Amino acid sequence: MLKKFENKLFRRNFLQVISTLFGATALNRNLFAQTNKPNIVFILADDLGYGDLSCYGQQDFNTPHIDSIAKDGLKFLQAYSNSASCTPTRVALITGRYQMRLKVGTEEPLQSDSPKDAGLSPEHPTMPGQFKKIGYSTTLIGKWHLGDLPNFGPLKSGYDNFYGVFSGTTDYFKHDSKSSTPLYEQEVAIDRQGYITNLFGDRAVETINRHAQNKTPFFMSVHFNAPHYPWEGPNDEAESKRIKALIHRDGGNLKVFASMVQSMDENVGKILKALSDKGLSDNTIVIFTSDNGGERFSRTWPFSGMKNELLEGGLRIPSIIKWPGKISPDQTTQQVSISMDWMPTLLAATGGFSDPAYPPDGENLLPQILNTKTPIKERKLFWRFKVASQRAIRDGDYKYLQIANNEFLFNVVEDQRERANLKDRHKDIFDRLKNDWSNWNLSMLNERERPATFTNAGRGMADHYGVVNNPK
């Protein structure tokens, strides 16, 4: 009897040991799977034009650190922003959807006279929120511009940590807690001295160093406000003291603009070096892009137009990604892409998923990114911008464009400058695209009342196309 009991006890202990071993193995496997997920560093410039990097044709100054991302990975040659302004593109980027599906996305941009309830709803799924669900730590460093406290903010929309500014514009030197556009740590205004591009770069390095110790996979967004106005390089603190308003017409030049972009490039270099020093480079996806086309000092060649215009210069942006061991170095692609593609693409790269109740409008371009021999995915993209009643659709090589009461059809592959209006020559294509745009627009929220004048947009349009400023 005693022997029988001892045998049963042995078997039970043996099974417990085996169960513990298998459980530990499963736990280790799960931990390995978690820590083996690629980190993501998403770097977003503000108002950087298509040709403002030396790897995209800039010849007046060099951007070696950002260029190195292209050298080590893939460069898009036909990348678009979701809008010609910052807030709507940021809505599309963080949700993976056309910004006009959300009230905040119809603000172009979100500003002091916007409705008080205009902001990114905390209930709406976001890219950082989806990463949190699969074990990522999430951080935003830099510009938010998707709604103010107490109702809106990064910590309410999927980010664990925030260090940056809520506003769309901030002085590069005056950003303490008493300034009009203070710097925030989480949801508290703080006092920090220094050039804000450097502050963002330094915080990104600190974040990388912290994650290198705890081994948690991380999604870090670094949203620089450079080279957005005010026009202040790292040595221009005197200019910061001189100007009375952030929007000013009596400052800036090509030299100052170059110093702003080069400062951002240097800070990208610090981020890349930190990844390398901590042994994280090989398991980190790095993306660099812009929120819309360039401003007054940008190089948008070979395109016409600029920020706030649906001409190619207001929409075409640099877009670069590297993922060592997955993406072959020094590649380019003609795949047409848009800002809202990043969410489904990066979720596919990490095993994440979109909320089925909020299906993305963006496309998963991971197959085209990992192998440039994968067939190009045909795209049909839509835009709307209330200044000058602008409307646009690109389908294949053709683009329908409306500016006020003027309509155009361009082949933007053969005619990158958008000069030859083909609307009569290819009336069938013109009519089809115009009708497609109208049907798409019916599925979006209505615009708020449009401005009566061009404001700071339309100068190039009027000069090049004889546009009559008579919004409907």
Explain what the structure shows.
With 472 residues, this protein is of the alpha/beta class. The protein folds into three domains: 1-36; 38-377, Alkaline Phosphatase, subunit A; 381-465, Arylsulfatase, C-terminal domain, CATH 3.30.1120. It contains twelve helices and 14 strands. The protein has helices at 2-35, 64-72, 86-95, 127-133, 196-214, 237-242, 254-277, 312-315, 342-350, 366-370, 427-442, 459-465, and strands at residues 39-45, 74-80, 137-143, 161-165, 183-185, 188-190, 218-223, 284-290, 319-322, 331-338, 380-385, 390-395, 398-403, 406-411. Helix 5 packs parallel to helix 7 (254-277). The longest helix is centred in the N-terminal third of the chain and has 34 residues, at 2-35. The chain is globular. The model is unreliable at 1-34, 452-458 and 468-472 (pLDDT under 50).
